[in-house]
Amino acid sequence: IKAVHNHLVFNGGGRKNHSKAVANLAALCSGGSYDIPFVSIDSEAFRSKSISGGSQRGFGAPQAFLAIETSMDELAQKLQMDPITLRKKNILSLKHKTVMGGKIGNNPRLDEILDIARKHPLWKKYKLRKEEDGWIHGVGFAMAMQPFGASTDGMLGYVALDSSGNIKVVSDAVDMGTGSATTLAMIPARRLGKNAVNIEMGRPSFFGKLGLISGKGEKWDNPRWVPRISGSSGASTVAFQQVHAIESAAQVLADSSIIPAAIRIWKERGQTIRAEQVAIDETGVSAPYCDTLSLKEVAIAIKKYKLNRGAMIHASFRGKWVEADYHINHTRYHWPIDGLALEDYKGAFHLVDRKNTKRYSQESQFYRRTHFSPCANIVEVKVNQNTGETKVLKVVSILNSGPLITPEFVEGQHEGGVAMAIGYALKEEVPLDKNGPANGKWNLDQYHIPLSDDVPYNNIELICLAPEKGETASRGIAEAVMCAVAPAILNAVYDATQIRFTKLPVTPPKILASLKSRNSR
Description:
Layout: E1 3-11, H1 19-29, E2 38-46, H2 61-79, H3 83-88, H4 110-119, E3 131-132, E4 135-147, E5 153-161, E6 167-170, H5 180-186, H6 189-192, E7 198-200, H7 238-268, E8 279-281, E9 284-286, H8 295-304, E10 308-317, E11 323-328, E12 331-335, E13 339-344, E14 349-352, E15 355-358, E16 372-384, E17 390-399, H9 407-426, E18 460-464, H10 485-497, H11 508-520
Parallel strand pairs: 1-2, 6-7, 17-18
Antiparallel strand pairs: 3-4, 4-16, 5-6, 5-10, 8-9, 10-13, 11-12, 11-15, 13-14, 16-17
């Protein structure tokens, strides 16, 4: 592929509903998962008298991936190439750049995903076109590289140790059914050896103690200034951005309080230990030739030695995390955060100024998002030649998720994404004129969402790539497992009917009319 020209237009409806951001993300995703040397992409959202649009059916990415992934299959057909072979000749890798010119921040591993798809038994049914009892079968493939997070993310986190050695977490994020409360409660175990006993979500005012300010123009010389104070609570920001904030707060608490307290306990017992010798895991705080200490013992020592019991942090991400030095009790620490307040043993907070800040590049403001959750889908459908009904029989997803924090949540996101995409592709039709939902009289009797019988829950398979050696960062999933399902459905419908549909939803009347038109020729 030498070039792509895309013009995207979004009907935002009567109210502003993330319309600008949706149009921006669609533009970023409109190059798909491919290395394209020359691009001409423009995207716009306009106001209308229709129902509010914005992000209610994906954040622009599903629409962009639908366009390019059905186009890729159409191109493969014209070139008489296998669709996976065509894609493999053009995929992005770490050496390439996004359509915005930014470096790709994490290895997409698209070649591995395509190899798995090519060998999967379901893909071997492609072009077989089995017919039975009026139904014709088809198999389709599509892939996507869904970005996660925003172009600039501001993250807040707090971790503390109470007098009983229990861990408390506070986040400004809101758990909207994304599982972020459960996930963030598990994260302190990475640095402190135990999950949080208490977690409070949706507390942005709590972080006013950091005294942060934000605004146009970079003012990094002011230790209280950050590019953006608070970030999104969206599902895509949990595993990477929100986790980083809580893990960093836990690391600050470990380095500046828990380890020094343990060293002082051992010193009183006649044992000299350096900080780099101390380990914290599920068994407690340990060092060579020393008794392992429980977190409760350490918590008691923190009060005795008048150390800090909590850490409140701010972190900024744009292509990379901002890093800085912090001087605490005559010791210099270096952490991937740009704001810090420590809570002393009495509960008072004290600001610690950052020094020697290592910020992200000026150019990164033009790249938008640089980190992705690649996913490919193989879908089998059957189409009824007499009624035009389409049934999704099986869905296979191959996902580059990074290390899984809570596998059950990824499975849940996957099932929900498949159901959402089936409705988006085959059922959810919204007239945009005065007779549509904008008249305020619509309900689920007219807006048809997928029911349990429409989703093949017993035939949904999720394959997650094993993390690469040394890989620690997880990916935000959110729409990643949904983006490629709809184009895979459309490509499967084409495989079955030899009719290419480009307008959603592909409802039975549309299919039946196209079948009759084809048969009459």
